[in-house]
Amino acid sequence: MHIRPATRADSADIAILDDIASSGLASHVLESGVRDGKYDRPLEFGRDGYAFIDGPYSWKNVLIAETADGIAGMSLSFELTGGLGDSGLPDPVLEPLEGLKAQAVGTRLIDSVAVYTRFRGQGIGRALVEAELARATGPSSIMTDSANARALSLYQSLGFEEQARAPLVAFSPNQTATQWVLLTRPAVYVCGAPASAH
């Protein structure tokens, strides 16, 4: 397995993996492109968005994990500046997430981490987060839902600490989580503890 920068040709996989990372939230948001008649399916809208729209949610901000069997996973991150470009599409379901983002301005947000089901259990998710941390020039942040114990454990093992929670507005009938969780990590981390400033 190796990790490489994404290319525009990876956009379909990125759209699928983003939907996996968000437990279907991406498809919910992308339904707007179907409702207005521009696209037949949400993931088609997502693919075109990643391929052709500049901004935080672009293939240019994605890392791809690849094995001999093809693409296994991806991660997407960008600097949170507090500007309009930080925000996703307007949607009431996203408002709590936008509020957490506002608390993490000045960090590099690891917005999405996902691994296809058949590649899980091989350390690919950890490798992607570590690669994201390696390209951060300052503190990092990441969010997940309160029911994702595996993700919370992984992020905490990599030095992230919980900073805030916000209510999760249901977007699927099968949801068990009730909150979004924001975790942050200092810029420099040495031997399992934040490095002292000099």
From TrEMBL:
* Full protein name: Acetyltransferase
UniProt cross-references to CDD domains, sorted A to Z:
NAT_SF
Source organism of the structure: Hoeflea phototrophica (strain DSM 17068 / NCIMB 14078 / DFL-43)
Q: Which GO terms describe its molecular function?
A: acyltransferase activity, transferring groups other than amino-acyl groups
Q: Which keywords does the record carry?
A: Transferase
Keyword check for Transferase, yes or no: yes
Q: Which domain of life is it from?
A: Bacteria
Residue ranges of the N-acetyltransferase domain?
1-186
Q: Which Pfam families match?
A: Acetyltransf_7 (PF13508)
Q: What is the lineage of its organism?
A: Bacteria, Pseudomonadati, Pseudomonadota, Alphaproteobacteria, Hyphomicrobiales
